[in-house]
């Protein structure tokens, strides 16, 4: 028997035991679904993070009174500095605006409640004050209505722009533009609606009410606010040098002593995305290990089924050997059969894994993830299937190849 005949013989054997083949392939399919599905979901979540930060300029960074992303460890306090007040933020903007675009933002209220008629939002809406550069630098777009005018920025007008989640909670059929809402006891006229942005943290960028910066300061009613500063320039080739220049200006504004550490945090706008990319790399390793363990269980089940197959076909093996089949050809036949079953199961698992992985990613990222076709993981899955087939089939095939033809012919 040559290789081609062995392949066809393996396929005939699979067809002759169709139910057992389907059940065996299903075990492998579930293992591959677990492996490829987990890795697809992780890639989808990473795409959500990338989409969330895609609107940010490549040459932009943020100055805050706390790190952009800090993982707290046991016994350590979150690192925070003194608030960056309005005077300091404005002074930095006046000193550095000649080198790039500078935007100021303040969180007026993290738990604001907006009311319109008989409806109101959940107490998890962010009320933020922004200046005229904020939307451009942070990638926000107005889908209907308009942005704030220069007059509204300068004169603390009672106007606002709403995120889509706020609109969904306050309005049903009527258009929000030019209507009025009440936030923290203050009437605000809605002039625009933001395009859906999404967020890896569960849609927080859409649960927002934006007001002009001076309006936000007025609504804070004397509370001590902290201001976040974003700086961007399209002309800079080396962002690190540009950031160091901005660091020097901010140290001067904050009057940090020479030799002392910065009294503020300065981070690239995409630093969270880069940090999350490192996390997803670790998740991929964990996902691969979990999926591989699942496949190991499937491989053991397949090995057991192949052992049963060898026992059932002992007489058939004896006939083949008596007709001149070598032990190598017998070994090859059973290995091919195991590999073909694994590949069939693997293809079915990949078909299931792609929609399941993408659905999980969409659910976690609030619909902001891109649809992923994981070509790398699909190819990896097929290779793993072949390896599982070899692992599962090698012992039963070896056992079949070593059968004595005379004893095998006597088997009933």
Automatic annotation (TrEMBL):
UniProt topology in membrane: Multi-pass membrane protein
Gene Ontology CC entries for this record: plasma membrane
Annotated protein name in UniProt: FtsX-like permease family protein
Keywords: Cell membrane, Membrane, Transmembrane, Transmembrane helix
Subcellular location: Cell membrane
Listed transmembrane segments: 21-42, 285-310, 331-360, 372-395
PANTHER family on file: ABC TRANSPORTER PERMEASE YTRF, MEMBRANE COMPONENT OF TRANSPORTER-RELATED
């Amino acid at each position: 028997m040559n290789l081609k005949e062995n392949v066809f013989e393996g396929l005939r054997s699979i067809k002759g035991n169709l139910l057992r083949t389907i059940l065996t392939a299903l075990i492998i399919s579930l293992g591959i679904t677990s492996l490829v599905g987990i890795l697809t979901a992780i890639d989808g979540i990473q795409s959500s993070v990338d989409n969330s930060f895609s609107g940010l300029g490549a040459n932009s960074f943020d100055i805050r009174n706390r790190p952009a992303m800090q993982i707290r460890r046991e016994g350590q306090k979150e690192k925070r500095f003194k608030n960056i007040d309005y005077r300091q933020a404005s002074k930095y903007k006046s000193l550095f605006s000649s080198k790039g675009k500078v935007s100021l933002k303040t969180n007026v209220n993290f738990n604001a409640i907006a009311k319109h008629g008989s409806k109101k939002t959940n107490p998890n809406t962010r009320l933020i004050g922004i200046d005229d550069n904020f939307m451009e630098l942070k990638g926000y777009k107005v889908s209907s209505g308009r942005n704030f005018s220069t007059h509204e920025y300068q004169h603390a007008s009672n106007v606002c722009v709403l995120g889509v989640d706020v609109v969904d909670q306050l309005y049903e059929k009527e258009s929000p533009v030019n209507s009025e809402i009440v936030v923290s006891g203050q009437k605000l006229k809605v002039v625009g609606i933001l395009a859906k942005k999404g967020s890896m943290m569960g849609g927080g960028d859409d649960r927002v009410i934006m007001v002009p910066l001076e309006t936000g300061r007025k609504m804070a009613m004397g509370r001590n606010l902290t201001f976040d500063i974003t700086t961007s320039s399209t002309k800079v080739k080396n962002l690190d040098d540009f950031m160091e220049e901005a660091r020097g200006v901010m140290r001067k504004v904050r009057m940090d002593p020479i030799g002392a550490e910065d009294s503020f945090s300065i981070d690239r706008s995409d630093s969270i995305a880069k940090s999350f990319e490192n996390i997803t790399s670790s998740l991929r390793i964990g996902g691969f290990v979990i999926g591989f363990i699942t496949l190991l269980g499937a491989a053991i089940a397949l090995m057991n089924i192949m052992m049963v197959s060898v026992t059932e076909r002992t007489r058939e093996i004896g006939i083949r050997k008596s007709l001149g089949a070598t032990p190598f050809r017998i070994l090859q036949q059973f290995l091919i059969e195991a590999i073909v079953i694994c590949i069939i199961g693997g293809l079915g698992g990949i078909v299931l894994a792609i929609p399941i992985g993408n659905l999980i990613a969409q659910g976690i990222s609030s619909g902001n993830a891109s649809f992923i076709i994981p070509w790398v993981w699909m190819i990896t899955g097929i290779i793993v299937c072949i390896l599982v087939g070899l692992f599962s089939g090698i012992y039963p095939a070896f056992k079949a190849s070593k059968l004595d033809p005379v004893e095998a012919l006597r088997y009933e």
